[in-house]
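Worked problem 6 (solution included).
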Amino acid sequence: MYEKLKEISIELKNEEIELFDKFNEFFLKYNENINLVSRKDSIYLFEKHIYDSLAINLFLERYKIKKNCSLMDMGTGGGFPSIPCSLYYKDMQVTAIDSIRKKINFIKTVKKEFSINNINPICSRVEELSFKYKNNFDIVITRAMAELRIILEYAIPYIKVGGYFIAYKSIKADEEIINAQNALKTLNAKVIDKIGYELPIEDENKRVLLIIKKEKETPSIYPRKNGLVKKNPL
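Solution. The predicted structure is:
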C-alpha cells in the first residue's frame, strides 16, 4: 500500500515502512478500547488518515519548505496529521493541539512507545493557548475541523508573518473561500494556492490543500474567547 505514496512524492525506506507498520498495528489495537476514529474509518487507516496526513508533502515540495520547520496541528484528534508528520519528517517540530484529553493521552503514549522526540502534545482549546504561542509557527495545519472562516481565526494568530496555514478541505473549498473573505481581510491573510489530490479509495476521494499565507501581523484580539469564534464568525 505504501507504493501509493509515490503519488504525493513520498517513497518510504524499508525502516520507515516498518515504523509505519508498527504504528498501524498499535493504533488499531488501541482504537478497539478508546474510540479515536470510527470503526468504519479504522478499516481505511492508511488511505483516509495516514495518506491524507502526508499529502502535506505536496505543499512542502512545491514551496520548497525546509523540513526542520515548526508546525502546529490544530484539532489533531487521534493524531492526524501530527503523528504521521512527526514519524516521517524527523526534523520537523510538531505541536499537536486538541481539547479532548483521551486523544492527547494517546499521542503522549505514541510519543513514548515510538520514542518520537519531535512531537509536543498539548491538551487545550486553541483560543486558550498561552500568548507565547502567537506568531510562533512556520505552519499551522488543520484537517476536518470546521468551516474555513471559523478555522482561520483559530489558526492565523499563531503563524509567523510570512508563514502558512494549510487547510485540508473537500472539493467544496471554493464556496468556503467566498464565505471567508472578511475573515481573510481582518486577519491579514490571503489564499495563494489550491493543491488537489486524490485519496487511494474509490468513494469521496477528492481532496484539496488550501494554502493561505499570513501577510501581516494579526490584531492581538484574535482569536476571540468564550465561544465567540463560532457564535459570531468573522
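Discussion: Residues 161 and 217 are 6 Å apart (CA to CA).
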